[in-house]
UniProtKB/TrEMBL annotation:
It comes from the Bacteria. SUPFAM superfamilies: Integrin alpha N-terminal domain (SSF69318). Pfam families: FG-GAP_3. InterPro entries: FG-GAP, Integrin_alpha_N. Gene3D superfamilies: 2.30.30.100. This is VCBS repeat-containing protein. Keywords: Signal. Residues 1-20 form the signal peptide. Coiled coil: none annotated. It comes from Nannocystis pusilla.
Amino acid sequence: MKRRGVLALALVACTPAPLAGDSDGSTSTAFGPVEPGTSSAASTTTDPLDDAPAEIDLGVVADGFALLDLDEDGHIDLVTSAYTTAVQLLRGRGDGSFDAPIGLGDGFDSYASAVVGGDFDGDGARDLAVLWSAHLVLLRDPLHGPHEALHAPSAGVAAARGDADADGLDDLFLAGGNVLDRLHGDASGVFDLRPPLGLGGEPVDIVAADLDADGAVDIVTANVGTDDLSLLRGDGLGGFLPQTLLPVGDQPFAVAVADLDVDGTLDLVVLHVGGLVTLRGLGGSAFAAPHGIALPEHYSRHEASFAVCELDGDERPEIVVTRDFNGYGWLTRFEVAEDTRVIEPKVLRSGRGVGRIVCADLDGDDRDDLVFDAFRPGGSTLHLLRSSP
């Protein structure tokens, strides 16, 4: 019988701060605090999100979470990690709601900073990699267990996956300690650890994507210690070229990849302590100089998060930023101009402190929905905001 195990990984919890107004000095229309089962104050303009969020109360601190189709039934599921308790699965029903949470693994003794799904052993079933403090835990085929914890030391604080050597197995990339750790998937279920590669100072976020459209996975990390991004181009054989450093502003702590201008070339989005920055992709892994929008309050990686989503059905991405300030939180949407500049910020929600955010189409209407955590004494409540047609 094939052994099923767990190897140690982590989830990053982020918390946001207040947005005083729009980039032109005007004040955004704000919603009042949203309580369970109630509607927020009406906006003067129509936004693509329902007024009343459906609230999911896990009863535990949600350090991190991810949206993916774990059971491969065609519906997006929600996977969460929680301090000292468990990895939990909330199965998606395909209508924007979820089943009650079920435990996938427990007994971990620290905050998780990342959860990544992928088929790391080639058995056709989705596995979960959870970055937990100084350990990486791999839950192989977690829906069928049994769950055997295989702990591996790691200095990583952020994780991403991609098939770097084109062997059909997902590989895992960990950023932390100024290096990139590469764990290549193997049919035996044991990662093949490759020599680490150098990164900029104190990387805290990572994405893996084919930025230059050559069929090979590339890596980008956000480095708070050197105020830049590290770009490593993949060679398609599992190796990477030496890093290129891209200056982007003071202490960048979150990075994402998306085709913001819908021209077929991937662009970069970066959140740093002074604002939100976009870098337009020029092809061949080249990027234009960064465009930025200053945010009224300095953000830190413990106070903010963002997601690139498509909320209103126009097939152009928007950027949604969360911010927490002394327990009070904001959710702000930014439109993106044709040259990838960030414009027209609008506060979508305000209320209790807001942390990490993710988005996906949960109800099949071709519009992304938002899932984010709102803090409360003794725990964290996940909120769902569904886009309206």
